[in-house]
Amino acid sequence: QAQLQESGPGLVKPSQTLSLVCTVSDDSITTKWSAWSWIRQPPGKGLEWMGVISYDGSTYFSLSLKSRTSISRDTSKNQFSLQLNSVTPEDTAVYYCARGQDWTFPYWGQGTQVTVSS
């Protein structure tokens, strides 16, 4: 069973880039057919899927965030990362990494709070 852990700064200034890392254990991000997603939940709102990186390195993003989002990976460290550019206070949320896609996520990280504020 995969274990996921998010890490990164809890406070980001407006217009800067939000960067988070998800470290995976007890599984491999290159396991065939596996997919690894980023999801967020702003305060008082529902979950929002942001994007996914597949076992072969291919990526797909939410249309609403595509212009500001990238996802990369480091297979030597079994990690995948999120970068969200030009953040605003509306990007304040709890950010989760999870195994899966298409709203089927059997394994989740605990989540990390990111606040966008000057």
Summed up:
This protein has 118 residues and is mostly beta strands. Helix content is 0%, strand content 53%. The chain is globular and about 40 Å long.
Strand content: over 45%
Low-confidence stretches: none
**What is the H/E order?**
EEEEEEEEEEE
Q: Tally of extended strands? A: 11
Determine the fraction of residues in helical runs and give it as a percent range: under 10%
Mean pLDDT: 96
**Gyration radius, in Å:** 13 Å
Characterize the main sheet: 7 strands, mixed
Note the gap between the termini. 39 Å
SS class: mainly beta
Shape: globular
In DSSP terms, counting alpha (H) and pi (I) runs of 4 or more, how many helices?
Answer: 0
Structural write-up:
Helix content is 0%, strand content 53%. The protein is globular. It has no helices and eleven strands. Strands 2, 4, 5, 6, 9, 10 and 11 form a seven-stranded mixed β-sheet that branches. A four-stranded antiparallel β-sheet has the order 1-3-8-7, with no helix packed on it. The protein is mainly β and 118 residues long. It has strands at 3-7, 11-12, 18-25, 35-41, 48-54, 59-61, 69-74, 79-84, 93-101, 104-108, 112-116. The chain starts with a strand and ends with a strand.
